[in-house]
Amino acid sequence: MFISKIKMNQLERKIKDLEYYKNQYHEKKKGNQRCSEYEYFLANKNVMIIDKLDNYPSKAIYIYELNRPSEQWMFDLGFNLQFEDFATLIGKLELGVMINENALRIRKLGVSNNYRNQGDATYMMTKAIHWGKVELFSSISLFASTSAISFYNELNQEQLIKFYNKLGFSGDSRGYMTYKYTQ
């Protein structure tokens, strides 16, 4: 059977497109499974959780409140959803992977003032810890530090350490505010 080079190139592009969408499907399926483990968090909220833990170079979780029903195309925007007028960024958790150490590092955790003390940070941290365990990282760590200036409803250093301790983190020997997941 003879196939022209042009036809072959077209078929190869279609296969690449299908592989891309197949990967997207599996990634979203994994993210949805992680979300379903914490269904209580989503009760009575019109939120969208963007889970970028799998198949992305930069690992993150974003939570948005929507003022309209969610649609499939919104998930494709990911972090850029924050620039849309129908979405408000509630919280974000950014992670770093140290490949040479097989370690996961919590880089940034933030929740908007109006949404604090509602479980958003706990949800994101629990989800990240669970993902770190499933991916068999040798350690999960973070650097716990508040800003020098206290903002409205912000945790002080003692409260922050208590929050991380409650999640299973404890101080390690590397530094004063460096914490490692120990459970």
Rg computed from alpha carbons, rounded to a whole number of angstroms = 20 Å
Q: How confident overall, as mean pLDDT?
A: 78
Stretches with pLDDT under 50, minimum 5 residues? none
| Structural category | alpha+beta
N-to-C CA distance: 60 Å
The helicity comes to 25-40%
Shape: globular
User: How many helical elements?
Assistant: 5
How do the strands of the widest beta sheet line up side by side?
A: 1-2-3-4-5-7-6
Number of strands: 7
| Strand residues, percent | 25-35%
Order of H and E elements: HHEEHEEHEHEE
Largest sheet: 7 strands, mixed
How is this structure best described in words?
The chain has five helices and seven strands. It is of the alpha+beta class. It has a seven-stranded mixed β-sheet with strand order 1-2-3-4-5-7-6. β3 (87-98) and β4 form a beta hairpin. The radius of gyration is 20 Å and the shape is globular. The termini are far apart. The model has no long low-confidence stretch (mean pLDDT 78).
Describe the structure using short key phrases.
183 residues; alpha+beta; 7-stranded mixed sheet; 37% helix; globular
Describe the secondary structure blueprint for this structure.
Elements: H1 5-36, H2 39-42, E1 47-52, E2 59-66, H3 72-77, E3 87-98, E4 103-111, H4 120-134, E5 139-143, H5 157-166, E6 169-171, E7 178-181
Parallel strand pairs: 4-5
Antiparallel strand pairs: 1-2, 2-3, 3-4, 5-7, 6-7
Brief sketch in words of this structure:
With 183 residues, this protein is an alpha+beta fold. It has helices at residues 5-36, 39-42, 72-77, 120-134, 157-166, and strands spanning 47-52, 59-66, 87-98, 103-111, 139-143, 169-171, 178-181.
